[in-house]
């Protein structure tokens, strides 16, 4: 029994924010019914890196796929009936789209008062920008993330993952869990409005008050966080290694590990403020030391002196690491299209109601039409055939 076992989620929308929210809820045990447009389905089916696109296998695990054409009345009617049986609705369409299809939150809540509706969009459901199209990268730019990422002498960079989408999905999921608690006390559902730019803004630490109070604007600083030192990736003989000793006692231990304990109390580096003022000089000093050693040698010293540090991993290192294996951070899933496929597990871990991957991603759009429309709505095969012929599913 997983934590959300017994809850039914209808997942609408495409690409990443809505589907990732559904993935999180599914990993925690909820029944996820993913509604896809007939034909090609969610574009995520063909997204990802590499020759064969396998990202779908992660984001669509623990889900059942039904097809429905939300642009025609018959498809809208089917989905409305499904939503009436659900606990949670997840959607990430442009604001106004659900209303255009006759699926406004007010009408859905009138039929299902306990329904929790999580709406994810670029700018939110209200405000002067609400009707603009918004993708994750745009939210990252408006929320302040893009401006501060990259090298100082180059244009803003991006992360190698869609962080704006996944942050918004995570806040949407968090909102759903809070709304479930409220519903347990009142029986009433509600609407959660998660905006891409606000989800990014939430993790921007002191960026706004630093400017409001002191006029300070954070700038791009490359691999360092300005004023936080030492905390960087350093070069070794055979690779790179991350060290985070940005605390007075940790810096003293690092200086000892380096064989230069006197640096621990050197006035240039002894305090958080002075290390920040001499950050570049300090990084060069540490780099000069790490370049004389292998990654294994530096790693052993960091463990011996209890300094937060670690190797810079790619997928091969993750798959080989004993800690990943011991905690089942990466699991092997028997997929329908690719056979056995390794992917990240379900997080966080629960002591009493563990989550996990119970079923692989559906390989066919509408793969579970007969099961879902039949079991939940009682629609017979003949009617399903008629709906398919009419383009509704």
Largest sheet: 6 strands, parallel
CATH architecture annotation of the largest domain: 3-Layer(aba) Sandwich
Ranges with pLDDT <50 over ≥5 residues?
none
Q: At the first level of CATH, what is the class of the largest domain? A: Alpha Beta
Query: What is the fold named in CATH at topology level of the largest domain?
Result: Rossmann fold
Spatial strand arrangement across the major sheet: 3-2-1-4-5-6
Approximately how much beta-strand content do the residues carry?
5-15%
Structure description:
The chain is an alpha/beta fold and 393 residues long. It has 2 domains: 8-203 and 326-389, Rossmann fold, CATH 3.40.50.10540; 231-316, formyl-coa transferase, domain 3. The protein has helices at residues 17-27, 56-59, 73-84, 97-100, 105-111, 136-142, 145-148, 163-186, 196-202, 207-214, 248-257, 272-277, 279-290, 295-304, 315-320, 322-326, 369-375, 381-389, and strands at residues 8-11, 31-36, 63-67, 88-91, 116-121, 190-195, 231-236, 239-244, 309-311, 330-335, 339-344. The strands form 3 sheets. It has a 6-stranded parallel sheet, sandwiched between helices. A hairpin with a 2-residue loop joins strand 7 and strand 8 (239-244). Helix 6 (136-142) packs across helix 9.
């Amino acid at each position: 029994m997983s934590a959300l076992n017994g809850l039914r989620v209808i997942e609408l929308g495409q690409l990443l924010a809505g589907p990732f929210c559904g993935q999180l809820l599914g990993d925690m045990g909820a029944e996820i019914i993913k509604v896809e447009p007939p034909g090609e389905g969610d574009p995520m089916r063909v997204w990802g890196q590499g020759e064969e696109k396998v990202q779908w296998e992660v984001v669509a695990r623990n889900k059942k796929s039904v097809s429905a054409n939300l642009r025609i009345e018959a498809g809208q009617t089917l989905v409305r009936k499904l939503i009436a049986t659900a606990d949670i609705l997840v959607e990430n369409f442009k604001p106004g789209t659900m209303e255009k299809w006759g699926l406004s939150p007010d009408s859905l809540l009138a039929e299902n008062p306990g329904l929790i509706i999580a709406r994810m969009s670029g700018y939110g459901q209200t405000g002067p920008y609400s009707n603009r199209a918004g993708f994750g990268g745009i939210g990252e730019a408006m929320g302040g993330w893009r401006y501060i990422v990259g090298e100082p002498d180059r244009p803003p960079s991006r992360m190698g993952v869609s962080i704006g989408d996944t942050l918004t999905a995570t806040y949407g999921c968090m909102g759903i869990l809070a709304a479930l608690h409220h519903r347990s006390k009142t029986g009433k559902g509600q609407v959660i409005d998660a905006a891409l730019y606000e989800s990014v803004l939430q993790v921007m630490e002191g960026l706004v008050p630093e400017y409001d109070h002191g006029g300070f604007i954070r700038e791009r600083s490359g691999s360092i966080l300005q004023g936080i030192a030492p905390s960087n990736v350093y070069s070794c003989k055979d690779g790179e290694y991350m060290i985070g000793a940005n605390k007075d006692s940790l810096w003293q231990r690092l200086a000892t590990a380096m064989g230069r304990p006197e640096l621990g109390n050197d006035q240039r580096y002894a305090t958080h403020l002075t290390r920040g003022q001499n950050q570049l000089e300090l990084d060069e000093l540490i780099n000069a030391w790490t370049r004389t050693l292998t990654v294994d040698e530096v790693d052993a010293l960091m463990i011996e002196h209890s300094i937060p540090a670690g190797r810079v991993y790619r997928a091969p290192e993750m798959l080989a690491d004993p800690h990943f294996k011991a905690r089942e951070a990466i699991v092997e899933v028997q997929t329908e299209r690719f056979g056995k496929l390794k992917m990240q597990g379900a997080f966080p871990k629960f002591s009493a109601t563990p989550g996990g991957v119970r079923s692989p991603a559906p390989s066919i759009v509408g793969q579970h039409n007969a099961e879902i429309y039949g079991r939940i709505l009682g629609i017979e095969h003949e009617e399903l055939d008629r709906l398919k012929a009419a383009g509704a599913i």
